[in-house]
Design brief:
39 strands, UDP N-Acetylglucosamine Acyltransferase, domain 1, 4 helices, alpha/beta, flat, homotrimer, 11-stranded mixed beta sheet
Amino acid sequence: MENMKKTGRQLREVAKFLGGTVIGEETVTIYNIRGIDEAGEGDLTFIANPRYKNKLEETAASAVLVSPDVKESSRNLVVVENPYLALAKALTLFYPEERDSVKVSEDAYISEGAEIAEDATVYPGVYVGRNARIERGVILYPGVFIGNHVMIDENSILYPNVTVYRRCRIGKRVILHAGVVVGSDGFGFANPGKDNLKVPQVGIVEIDDDVEIGANTTIDRGSLGKTWIKKGTKIDNLVQIAHNVVIGENSIVVAQVGISGSSRLGKSVIIGGQAGLVGHIEVGDNVMVAAQSGVHDDVGPNQIISGSPHMSHRKWLRTQACISKLPEMRNTLKSLSKKIEELEEKIKIIESQA
Amino acid sequence: MENMKKTGRQLREVAKFLGGTVIGEETVTIYNIRGIDEAGEGDLTFIANPRYKNKLEETAASAVLVSPDVKESSRNLVVVENPYLALAKALTLFYPEERDSVKVSEDAYISEGAEIAEDATVYPGVYVGRNARIERGVILYPGVFIGNHVMIDENSILYPNVTVYRRCRIGKRVILHAGVVVGSDGFGFANPGKDNLKVPQVGIVEIDDDVEIGANTTIDRGSLGKTWIKKGTKIDNLVQIAHNVVIGENSIVVAQVGISGSSRLGKSVIIGGQAGLVGHIEVGDNVMVAAQSGVHDDVGPNQIISGSPHMSHRKWLRTQACISKLPEMRNTLKSLSKKIEELEEKIKIIESQA
Amino acid sequence: MENMKKTGRQLREVAKFLGGTVIGEETVTIYNIRGIDEAGEGDLTFIANPRYKNKLEETAASAVLVSPDVKESSRNLVVVENPYLALAKALTLFYPEERDSVKVSEDAYISEGAEIAEDATVYPGVYVGRNARIERGVILYPGVFIGNHVMIDENSILYPNVTVYRRCRIGKRVILHAGVVVGSDGFGFANPGKDNLKVPQVGIVEIDDDVEIGANTTIDRGSLGKTWIKKGTKIDNLVQIAHNVVIGENSIVVAQVGISGSSRLGKSVIIGGQAGLVGHIEVGDNVMVAAQSGVHDDVGPNQIISGSPHMSHRKWLRTQACISKLPEMRNTLKSLSKKIEELEEKIKIIESQA
C-alpha cells in the first residue's frame, strides 16, 4: 500500500464528493487516507468514534472528517453527517479497485455444458462443473471450485480456494472470501452415538444479492430444501451455518459464531462473536445477541440478549453484578448465621428467665 | 434440486423398500421427498420429532413416514420403527448419487512412485505426492493435496481443497469435506512465551473406516505417534483436534469444538457445539458434553456434563436456577441483615429491661 | 513414520549433541524417538511433565531424557537442563526434513513482473500474482495463492491451499499451515444492521520473522494501515485475527481464539483456546488469558485473567468456588429466613408479655 502512488485532490473537491462542508483551508491537497495516529501532511483522516475526539488537535493530518457536533478546530475539517460512511466513500475515491485483465484462463477447467459469460474473469486453476452458469462480471480466483449445476449471478467475487458444492445458487454482487465452503453436507446422522447412519443431504444453499461472507466460513446445504442467506447480510470469518438455517435481510454475524440446524433469524439481526445458537429456534427482527452468548430458545423481536444460557441484557447485567459480589455474599451469609445463633441463644435465656 | 426430474414410485413399493407398513392408499405415486411444510402432491414427508406431530393433518404431502405410535390419520402413512432412519434410506432411493466420469485427469499432478487404483477418480488440479497410495473407488476433487507416503483406502471421498500432509492414513469410506486439513503440525513449542522453540511434529494422523469430517475442520498430526480418529466417528465443521488426541468409535463431535493435545475420548461420546476440552484428559464411553462446556478434567463413562468449568448436568441445572435467582437472593440477604439488626436492637432493649 | 528406516547413533553421541550427561550405558544404540508408553528397544524417550515420572522405571525405552532432579534409575538416562527443549533438538537429529526436488514447477502460474528466487520451490498449481516477490529458500505448496505485490521473505513455508491477498508482507522463516488466509477484508460496515455499507479495506497484513500460523486460521487486512503479527509469535489453528490487530513478539495464541478489530497485545502474551477479545483494547506484556475467557477491557501487564467477562484469575477461582456452593447458599438463605421469622414471633410474644 505504502508504495502506491496516489493522485492529489484539493480538499474542496473531496468535500464535494462526500457532500460535506470544509471548515478551514479548502485548497490543501490530499493524497491519501490514514488512521488518526499515522496521518501526516497530505493525508485525510477521520473521527468516527467520539472517544477519539481528543486526538483531533494532535493529529498531523492535513484534514479530518468529523461529525456536525465538532464546531471548530485548528485543523482543517470536513463536516459530514456520518464520518464512517464518508470514509467508506472517500476510500473508493483514493483506492479505486485494481483488476487483472484475465478473462477466462486457458488453464481453468471448464466442464461440459457450463456457461460462462464473456466478460467474466476465470483465473487459472479454477474448476467449473457441468451445466454451471457464471454470469457477467463474476470473478473466480485460482483454486475456486464450482460444482455441477451451480449458478453464480452477476458481479459476484469468489476469492481463492472457495468451494461451492453442486446445485447451490449465489446471487448478484456476492463476495465470498478465501476458503469459504458453501453447500457441504449438513451434520445429519440417525441414531447418533450408535449407528451414526448418514442421512443424505439433498438440499442446497441459496445466497441472495449483496451478501458478503468471511474467510473459511462454512455454510452447509439443506438436508431437504435449502439453507438461505438473504439479501444484504454480512457474515464474518470462521462462522458455522448449519443445514436449513435461514438468516434474514441485512443481518450481521460476527466471527466464529455457530448457528445450529433449522434455526431462523429475522431481518437486521446482529450476532456478536463466538455466540452459539441451538437448532430449531426463531430469532425475531432487530435482535442483538452479545458475544459468546448461548441462545437456547426462541427470541422475540427488538431485544438485546446476553449470557449462556441467554437472558435479557438488562437481567444479565444485574446477574453479573451479583456474581462479582458472590464471595462477599457468602461471607455475609456466614456472619448472619452466626448472629442468628447468638440471637437464638439469647432468646432461649430470656425465655428461661421469664 | 428443484429442476431434477424424478422417477415416480408407488407408495407400496417405497414402504417395502423401507420395511414399513402403509396405512391408507397404497397405489399413490411418490416423486420426491420434502420437509413437512414444503411437501405437496407427489411428495413423501416425515415426522421424526414428536413436536411436529400436530402438522400431520395439515400437510399437503401424498404420504408421511411416521413411528408406530401414530395409529390413524386422514393422510396416507408409512409406519416404520424409526422415521429418521427410514428417511435416510428413502433419500438414497430418490436421490441416487450422481457421478462425473473423470477417471484420473491428465491435469492432475501425480508424483513419482504414487500408486493410483485404476477406477479411482482424480479430478484436475489434484496433487498426489511421492509413494502415496490411492485405492479403488476413491474420489479426489480439484484442489486436493495428498502428501508423500499418504495412504487413502477404498471408496473414500475427499472434497475440494482438502489437504492431507505426508504419511497420514485414511481408511475406507471416509468422507473429508472441503477445506479439511489432516496432519498439520501440532502446536508444540518449548519455553512458550519466551523462546517459542518449535518441537518438530513427526507423528501422523490415522483416520479409520467410515469416519466423516466436516468442512474446514483441522486435525493435527501427532507430535510423536499418532492422532487417531476411530471407526464410525462423525466430526462436524470447523472443529479443532490437537496432536495425539484419540477419539473412540462412533463418537459425534459437533461444530467448532476444540479438543486439546493428548486427550482421549471413549466410544460413542457426543460433544456439543463450541465445547472445549483441555489436554491430557480421559473422557469415558457414552459421555455427553453439552454445547459450550469447558471440560477441564477426566470424566468417567455414561455421564452428561455441562458448564464451564464442567459439572454434572444435574448440578448445572440446579446451579443455573440459582444464578437466575441471584438478584433476588441478594435482596433477601439485605432484608435479612436488616431484620437481624432490628432483632438485635429489640433484644438489647429486652435484656436491659430484664 | 513407522516405515522410515533410521540411522542408529550411540547414546553418548546423542547426549553430546544435546549438551547432556549420560547416566548408565553410554554405548547403547538409539534408532528412534517415541513417547514413553510406546517406546521400546532402540528408542529414546523423555519425561518433560513431572506427573509422568512414575513411568520412568516401567518404560521399555533404551534411554530417557530427564531433568537434573532425577538422580538415578535402572534405565539409561540423559540428564539435560530442559528435557522438552532437548527433545525438540533430538527430533531434528533423528527426523531431518525431507524435501522434494521441485524448483519452480512449469505447472505453476507466474504472473507478469513476479520475481522468484532461483532456489525457491514452487509446486504445480501455485498462483503468483503480478510483481510479487518470492525470496530464496521459500516453499510454496500446491494450491497456494500469492496476490499481486505480495512479498514472501527467505525460507518461509506456505503449505497447500494458503491464500495471501494482495500487498501483504511475510517475513523470514514464517510457516503458514494449510488453508491459512492472510489479508482477507476486515469486517467493516457502516450502519450495521441497516445499510451494511461496505467500508473498503485498503490496509495490509504484515507478518514478521519466525511466526508460525496454524491450519485454517484467518488474518484480516487492515482497514487502513496494517494488521501486524510480530516476530516469533505462534498462532494455532482456526484462530480469527481481525483488522488492525497488533500482536507483540513471542506471543502464543491457542486454537479457536478470536481477537476483534484494533486490539493490541504486548510481548509474550499467552491466550488460551477459544478465548475472545473485544476490539480496541490493550493487553500488556506477559498477560496470560485462560481458555474460553471473554476479555472486554484493557488488561495491564503481568497478569493472569479468567472468565467471561474476565477478572483476575485469583478472583475467578474464589467466584467459581462460590458458584458451586450456590444451591447450598440458597438453602441456607431459606433456613435463615425461617429462623428469623421464628425469632420475630418469639420476640413479639416476649414483648407482649413484658
